[in-house]
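Q: Give me the 3D complex with iron/sulfur cluster.
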Amino acid sequence: MSLKKPKLLSPVGSFESLHSAIRAGADAIYFGVEQLNMRTKSVPTITIDDIKEVADVCKKHGVQSYLTLNTVMYDYDMQLVQKIVNTCKEDGIDAIIASDYAVFEICKTVGIPLHISTQANVTNVESVGFFSHLADVIVLSRELTVTQVKHITQEIKRRNIRGISGELMKIETFIHGALCMAVSGKCYLSLHEKNASANRGACVQNCRRPYQVVDLETGNELLIDNEYIMSPKDLCTIPFLDEMIDAGIDVFKIEGRSKSAEYVFTTTKCYREAIDAVLDGTFTDEKVAVWMAELDKVYNRGFWDGYFMGKKLGEWTKNPGSIAKEKKVYLAKCTRYYPKIKVAEFLIENGTLKAGDPLMVLGRNTGSDKITLDTLMINGAPGETAMKGDKITFPFESALKANDKLYKVVSDNG
Ligand code: SF4
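A: Here is the predicted complex, encoded as C-alpha cells.
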C-alpha cells in the first residue's frame, strides 16, 4: 500500500523561528499578526508590515506561508481583518486560517485561499462537506481519535468531496504541542479571572497552576498531590507517526507559535526525519527513542498521545511549566560579521566560555544553530577562557546581524 506524504506545517512567532522552521525542513509555516490570532499575548514580534518579508523568505525557500486570523471577531475588528487579508493577498501569503464566517466572506471577496481553523471544531465528514464550498483544507478538532480521523479521510475519497479548487478536500491535524483541557481553547478561565480572553488569543493559562479542592461540609482543603489537574501534558505523536500517516492526513501541524526558535527547530527536524523514515521504510523503535530524547530537550510539560489513541481524559502534567532537559544561558551579542571570510565576532556580556562548551547561535535571519568551538580566539589571539568584556571570533557559514545572540546550552535536569 502506498502512503501519502503529509506536508509538515511549523509554527512561527518570530523571524528566528521562521528561519529555524525552514532550515529544519518545514514544508509550510503559519504565523499571526496584530491581535486577531490565537497567540496575541506572546507573539508581538511579527506585525502587518512584516507580512511581505515572511512571504518572500518562504517563497525563496519553496515553503508555503499561512496566516492565522482565527479569534472570535467583533464588528470593530472588521477594518483590521480586511486590511490584513488584503495585505496577505498582495504580498503572496498562500492561505488564511480562519474560523469566523465574516473572515470566510472577506477571503472569498479578496480571492485568497481559506483553511478552516481547528477553532471551527470540525469533527465529522458531513461538516467537511459543508466547508468544501468555502475551502480546500480543514484543521480537524484535536479531540478525535486516529480511527475517527482515518474514517473522515476515507469518506472524503469515497464520497469524492472536493474543495473550492476542485481538488479532494485536505485534512490537517495537530501532531505535537500544547493541549487545552478545554475543547480547542473554548475556555473562560482566563477571561473570568484576568479579563483576558482565550478566544481572543490572550489566555493567561490559569489551568497550568496548582489547585486545592475544598470539602464544603468539613472545610478540609486537599492539595491535589503532584498533579496539575487541569493542565494536560503535551501532545506527541512520534511514537505512532506511522499510524498517523496511514490515516491519510494531508498536513501535520506542530503547535507552538509562542515558543522559542530552538523548539521550532528541534520539533520540525524530528518530525521531518520521522515522516521521511515512515515513507522510506526505516521507521524503527530505536529512531523513535532518539527523536523523543531530542524533543525532551526543548519546551515540554511531559508527553502523551492526546486523544488519538482513544483516551477519554487528559494525562495531567506534574509540573507547572516546561521540563525541558536543556536550557540556554545568554552569553554574548554579535558585534560584527565578516562576509568575505565568513567569520562572526561576538562580545561576551554574561558568564564565561571555554572551548568545547555547547553553544547556540540565535540569528534573526538564520534561526537557531547549535555549535561547539574546539579552539577559542579571544581578542584576536588563541585563549582558554573568554569572559565578560572579551570579544571572540569564529567561522560561521550564515551571515549574522549585529545583536544576534550567542547562548551556552546547559543541561537542566531539574
Ligand atoms: S486557561 Fe488553560 S484550558 Fe483555558 S484556554 Fe488557557 S490554556 Fe486552554
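A quick observation: The longest helix spans residues 261-279.
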